[in-house]
Amino acid sequence: MSSKQILPSEEIIQQYGSSLVGKTILITGVSGDSIAGELAIQLSAAKPHLLILSARAEDRIAPIVEKIKAMAPHVATKFLKMDLGDLNDIKTAVDTTLHDISKINHLACVAGIMVPPYGKTKDGFETQFGVNYLANFLLVKLLLPKVRAAGVGASITLVSSSAARTGKIDFEDIGFSDGRTYEPLTAYCQSNAAEVMFVKILAENWMVKESGPSALILVVCNHGLNHSQSLLDAELSSVSEGGT
Ligand SMILES: NC(=O)c1ccc[n+]([C@@H]2O[C@H](COP(=O)([O-])OP(=O)(O)OC[C@H]3O[C@@H](n4cnc5c(N)ncnc54)[C@H](OP(=O)(O)O)[C@@H]3O)[C@@H](O)[C@H]2O)c1
């Protein structure tokens, strides 16, 4: 296969999906129109044991659960209510909803925000830095023992973006002078660069020490362009603000 060849996800699942049979998979960012929602539906075809679907509100995952029940009635689903803009909520969600889950074979951190107007998370961080990077950092830290407990072939995937390539971390002023110098795209690139660096450092510090058959698979990826609702919203707001 050439490096430029793109396989439809259905084909990938057909070829490699047998490794997901009976597995527990946690996906963040699940909603009717998100990439994570589609991922959940497609993965259900591979007969995992349990899909843990995370969103801020249960009604966001409802249409996805309905489709999974229709397509793969034997696949169990569990709702994980978690606001990635609130570090305390992440900890509470993991402690309460996941206390009885001992192993997670695959963790897919897909939730993210793209170029919103300036805002802050509950903890006071610029929203994109907080949601796209800090939240994933904490979630991975909290769930690492459960993923490691799943053993050989377990994986953690963070969805970033090609925006990471031009991203720079402004260590002197991560929060854009409290919004005064905020540029949505620069902040998006910064948050994505932070995600990529996090996975790289995690891989270097951990995987190298733990190489061998029990090693985790750590991935940070860009899935390509998809015209999602948040991109549409960003485009509409740039049009209404006189942008292109
Ligand atoms: N779309 C693209 O073309 C593209 C390209 C490259 C990379 N990406 C990356 O791919 C990921 C997913 O993109 P997408 O197109 O699926 O975006 P999307 O349609 O906007 O979906 C984002 C998901 O993240 C959730 N989310 C946002 N803020 C959250 C928070 N504070 N707590 C919990 N969940 C939150 C949203 O929940 P709500 O429904 O509650 O808002 C939604 O389910 C993002 O990380 C993005 O950076 C996207």
- Helix proportion of residues, in percent? 40-55%
CATH structural fold name: Rossmann fold
Global structural class: alpha/beta
**Largest beta sheet: strand ordering:** 3-2-1-4-5-6
Give the integer mean of the pLDDT values.
88
Q: Please compute the radius of gyration using only Cα atoms.
A: 18 Å
The CATH homologous superfamily: NAD(P)-binding Rossmann-like Domain
Q: Count the strands?
A: 6
Q: Specify the overall morphology.
A: globular
User: What is the string of helix and strand elements?
Assistant: HEHEHEHEHEHEH
Count of runs of 4 or more consecutive helical residues? 7
CATH class: Alpha Beta
Number of domains: 1
Poorly predicted parts:
234-244
CATH architecture: 3-Layer(aba) Sandwich
CA(first)-CA(last) distance: 38 Å
Summarize the biggest pleated sheet.
Answer: 6 strands, parallel
Protein architecture, described:
This protein has one domain: NAD(P)-binding Rossmann-like Domain (Rossmann fold), CATH 3.40.50.720. Helix content is 42%, strand content 13%. It has helices at residues 9-16, 35-44, 58-71, 87-97, 127-149, 184-207, 229-240; strands at 24-28, 50-55, 76-81, 106-109, 155-159, 217-221. It has a 6-stranded parallel sheet with strand order 3-2-1-4-5-6, with helices on both faces. Strand 1 (24-28), helix 2 (35-44) and strand 2 form a beta-alpha-beta unit. It is globular and about 50 Å long. Mean pLDDT is 88; it is low at 234-244. The structure holds NADP nicotinamide-adenine-dinucleotide phosphate (NAP).
